[in-house]
Amino acid sequence: MTSGQATVPAPARPAADPGTGRDAILRAARRAFTQRPYAEVTIRGIAADAGVSPSLVVKHFGRKEELFNTVADFGPAAAELFDAPLGVLGRHMVVTLVRRRRELQSDPLLRVVFSLGNRDERSLLRDRFQEQVTDALAARLPGRERALRAELIAGHLLGLGATLSLHRGGAGADAGPEHIADLYAPALQSLIDRP
Known about the structure:
This protein has helices at 22-35, 43-50, 54-61, 64-71, 75-81, 89-104, 123-140, 146-166, 171-174, 177-193. The chain is mainly α and 195 residues long.
């Protein structure tokens, strides 16, 4: 910096969970419902994992069934991921996924992977993912083989989330969302643009 130039600080980001515990509860609930059968999951266990009281879980989400329905809802994440023109959608999805992971300390889509191969209520996670993510994306795509391309794009997004989770302290942790998009988004965009 030369003399006379001032450094402008970045605007402060508001905390995602300003003391309410809501985000911690959601993270704990996602872990619980994707790793154990529904019948084994308790409000008390989720509260303990989140570091809050069971009454706070009930205050925010109501009964266990309502909390599960919130966890199984991919709609808001999909709406944010797909909120860009088709010509830049691949890049937007990558940047948005990486930023959301870093801001919320969790992946907006990855929880569906833990529901694979299980039969109980966790099958609802797979059904909702198919409807709210894969089918919604297929409806936006032009050209042929939209369903297959949407499945492959969803696979790329899940793979990116899994890689960033697996290598939490790796090179990806130091790379900015835009740089990751420079490297990763072209593969997604080629599937989006395919006639």
